[in-house]
């Protein structure tokens, strides 16, 4: 299919070129034979070693300058996105200067300035340096745009799995941003290839310069420049083809992964699991979701079921304060959770429930107070002799990975470019160095335990919300968590899908997992929770067994909230 369409495009392009030349030539009074002779002569120039040699110079400069420029550009983009103001300013200043001055002047300047500081290069190397430095500035903005186009929730999910910033960038953000970046990069490459002609000012003997030399001798403007144009067009067509190929490669929502079949040449970029790409997830039959999910527990390590110190609370939040700007979000929260306990947090929107969960996993730093999970700080260490004062650790990702706190989000936050199975395998492989076969085996077992064994190869956007959330739970369980945090896991689901997710959570609770669940599902709280905590305006208002807090709340605010939620 693709091959056919590309062939049509090429035929169209050739037809159009012929028309462009043929009609004006005929109108100018040339006989058909003369025009054909002209074409033949032009073709001769296209094949001439002198012009092709010039084209090769242009290609060489473009290839090296483009690859160097892209590496520099990515670095500049990261500096622009850095939270360090000075890095950001330096990158901004560089981009401002390079974008704002003519490239011709930059080349001449580099050509004249480098020897003054003792750096002598031949003209082609000088041109490469000039073009690379220029491309760095332009591609930096393309990369930045691409990175910003990826939803922040993707990095939050990666951080919750213990992935560090560079790993997240490489494995999660860049693959997803490429789709937005590639068209711009192709523009830049084509632009650079054509613009190498200005390097003739520093005596680079490339294609345009060489055609000028020929014309200077034989005055055959149309034929020689026409031949140069054809060579440029052939080269840029190559770039356009690569662009098409790359765009398909990084298009994670394509139903069928790309296969090129072109003049008998076949190349398939993804031949794995062809059935998953053509089959609709709706037609894939799964055995009915079992009511009993307790066997999830058998997939969890024994270690997660024995606390370090059985006499201390498993999760201990003491006098936790957190502000965003001037707004106090958490105001002295005290909360202790025993090992194996299931705690449901209720509370109106904006009361700080999500913030509390993020602090427990150190996805956000706290302002005051302490939080310990299994008797250990997450991302802090106590200063020796400091009377309990703590200091944040540098390697937060490692701290999170070691804490083994699993997190499930309201909007699932599955990695959208990875299949259900790969979502579960990713952190095991990249963070915990689990061998591939082992990671995949656990991934498949977990998918089976949440009733999605046959959906392993589907990308998230092809799954229903309930299925996505079950994959997200499996993904969190794959890091062998000691504690699971659920932040409104069913709030984004259609009512008929809520049950399948709650069922899995029930199974986990029965298996003895320590869980903190923020939810508005009162029935779940009543049936599954050991304790219900009601929060409002950043404080714990009251807590106790479900029948006490839900049926006989002592506080007016709790009563009001329950009235709204239940009715
Ligand atoms: P809940 O989950 O109970 O609805 P949240 O913990 O999400 O509440 O948020 C509590 C308050 O903190 C909200 O008013 C929200 O606007 C604010 N908030 C949350 N995250 C941020 C942030 N990163 N920056 C600024 N304000 C925030
Ligand atoms: Mg919330």
Properties at a glance:
single chain; 567 residues; alpha/beta; MetI-like fold; 6-stranded mixed beta sheet; 4-stranded antiparallel beta sheet; 20 helices; 14 strands; 13% strand; elongated; binds adenosine-5'-diphosphate; binds magnesium ion
Number of DSSP strand runs: 14
Please report the number of helical segments: 20
Counting helices, strands and paired strands, the structural category is: alpha/beta
Write the CATH architecture name of the domain at 32-254: Orthogonal Bundle
**Lateral strand order in the biggest sheet:** 10-11-12-5-13-14
Q: CATH superfamily name of the domain at 32-254?
A: MetI-like
- Estimate the global geometry from the Cα principal axes: elongated
Distance between the termini: 56 Å
Describe the protein's architecture and organization.
The structure is a single chain. The protein is an alpha/beta fold and 567 residues long. Among the domains are: 1-30; 32-254, MetI-like (MetI-like fold), CATH 1.10.3720.10. The protein is built from 20 helices and 14 strands. It has helices spanning 2-27, 32-46, 49-81, 85-100, 103-116, 123-149, 152-160, 165-195, 207-218, 221-249, 274-278, 353-360, 396-403, 420-430, 436-449, 465-478, 495-510, 522-528, 546-551, 556-566, and strands at 259-262, 265-268, 315-324, 327-337, 342-346, 368-373, 376-377, 380-382, 390-392, 405-408, 483-487, 514-518, 531-536, 539-544. The strands form 4 sheets. Strands 10-11-12-5-13-14 form a 6-stranded mixed β-sheet, sandwiched between helices. Strand 1 and strand 2 (265-268) form a beta hairpin. Mean pLDDT is 87; it is low at 264-275. Adenosine-5'-diphosphate binds at residues 324, 329, 347, 349-355.
């Amino acid at each position: 299919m693709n091959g056919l369409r590309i062939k049509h495009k090429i035929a169209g392009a050739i037809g159009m070129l012929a028309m462009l030349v043929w009609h004006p030539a005929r109108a100018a009074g040339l006989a058909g034979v003369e025009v054909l002779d002209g074409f033949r002569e032009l073709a001769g120039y296209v094949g001439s070693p002198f012009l092709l040699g010039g084209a090769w110079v242009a290609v060489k400069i473009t290839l090296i300058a483009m690859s160097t420029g892209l590496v520099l550009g990515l670095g500049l983009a990261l500096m622009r996105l850095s939270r360090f103001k000075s890095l950001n300013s330096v990158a901004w200043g560089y981009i401002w200067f390079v974008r704002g001055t003519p490239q011709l002047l930059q080349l001449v300047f580099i050509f004249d300035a480098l020897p003054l500081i003792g750096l002598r290069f031949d003209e082609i190397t000088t041109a490469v340096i000039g073009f690379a430095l220029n491309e760095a500035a332009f591609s930096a903005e393309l990369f930045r745009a691409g990175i910003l186009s990826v939803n922040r929730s993707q990095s939050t999910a990666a951080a919750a799995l213990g992935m560090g910033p560079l790993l997240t960038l490489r494995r999660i953000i860049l693959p997803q941003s490429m789709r937005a970046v590639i068209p711009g990069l192709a523009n830049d490459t084509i632009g650079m290839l054509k613009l190498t002609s200005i390097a003739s000012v520093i005596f680079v003997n490339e294609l345009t310069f060489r055609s000028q030399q020929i014309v200077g001798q034989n005055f055959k403007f149309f034929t020689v420049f026409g031949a140069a144009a054809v060579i440029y067009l052939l080269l840029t067509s190559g770039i356009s083809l690569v662009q098409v190929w790359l765009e398909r490669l990084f298009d994670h929502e394509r139903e069928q992964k790309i296969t090129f079949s072109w003049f008998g040449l076949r190349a398939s970029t993804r031949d794995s699991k062809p059935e998953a790409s053509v089959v609709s997830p709706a037609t894939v039959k799964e055995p009915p979701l079992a009511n009993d999910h307790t066997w999830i527990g058998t997939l969890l390590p024994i270690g997660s079921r024995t606390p370090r110190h059985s006499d201390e609370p498993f999760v201990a939040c003491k006098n936790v304060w957190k502000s965003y700007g001037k707004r106090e979000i958490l105001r002295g929260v005290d909360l202790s959770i025993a090992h194996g306990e299931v705690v449901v947090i209720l509370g109106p929107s904006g009361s700080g429930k999500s913030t509390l969960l993020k602090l427990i996993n150190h996805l956000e730093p706290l302002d005051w107070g302490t939080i310990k999970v299994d008797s250990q700080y997450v991302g802090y260490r106590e200063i020796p002799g400091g009377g309990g004062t703590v200091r944040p650790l540098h390697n937060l990702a490692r701290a999170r990975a070691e804490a083994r706190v699993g997190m499930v989000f309201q909007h699932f936050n599955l990695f959208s470019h990875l299949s259900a199975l790969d979502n579960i395998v990713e952190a095991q492989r990249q963070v915990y160095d689990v061998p591939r076969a082992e990671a995949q085996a656990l991934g498949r077992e977990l998918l089976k335990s949440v009733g999605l064994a046959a959906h392993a190869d589907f990308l998230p956007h092809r799954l229903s919300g309930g299925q996505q959330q079950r994959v997200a739970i499996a993904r969190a369980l794959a890091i062998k968590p000691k504690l699971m945090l659920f932040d409104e896991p069913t709030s984004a689901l259609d009512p008929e899908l809520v049950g399948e997710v709650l069922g899995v959570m029930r199974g986990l609770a029965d298996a003895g997992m320590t869980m903190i669940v923020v939810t508005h599902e009162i029935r779940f709280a009543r049936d599954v929770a050991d304790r219900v905590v009601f929060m409002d305006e950043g404080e714990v208002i009251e807590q106790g067994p479900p029948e006490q807090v839900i049926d006989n709340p002592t506080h007016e605010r709790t009563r009001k909230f329950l009235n709204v939620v239940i009715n």
